[in-house]
Design goal:
The protein is mostly helical. The chain has four helices and two strands. The chain has one domain (7-92). InterPro entries: HAD-like_sf.
């Protein structure tokens, strides 16, 4: 390990750029995340994304090891499979968050990124 990067070094998309972009083909880079910002970072960096589903974290990690990781390693992750995972993730995102935001607004529009 050469570096541990936190928010002081930039966004997650920038971290992917620093660590892997230009060193590996885009389909050899996989960002695993549990938030729309992670999904957006993967899209901005041009890499693959595996979502951890809200409320289904344990199942998501099991699915990752049993299904997604083998597909990633065999280069069968991009395309329809990843799109189906992202659609499932988007469907799980709440229209109203269960916590109060800094602005006091509970209705949040979640961006849709493919």
């Amino acid at each position: 390990m050469r570096v541990i990067a936190g928010q002081e070094m930039g966004s997650k998309a920038e971290h992917v750029q620093y660590a892997a972009s230009g060193k590996y083909p885009a389909n050899h880079i996989l960002l695993v995340g549990d938030a729309p910002g992670d999904r957006e970072a993967a899209a901005r960096a041009g890499c693959l994304y595996y979502p951890i589903l809200p409320g289904q974290e344990r199942e998501s990690w099991h699915r990752f090891t049993a299904e997604a990781l083998p597909r990633f390693l065999s280069e069968d992750f991009a395309g329809a499979y990843q799109e189906s995972l992202i659609e499932e993730f988007n469907a799980k995102l709440p229209d109203v968050v269960p916590w109060e935001t800094v602005s006091g607004i509970r209705t949040v529009t979640m961006p849709t990124v493919k």
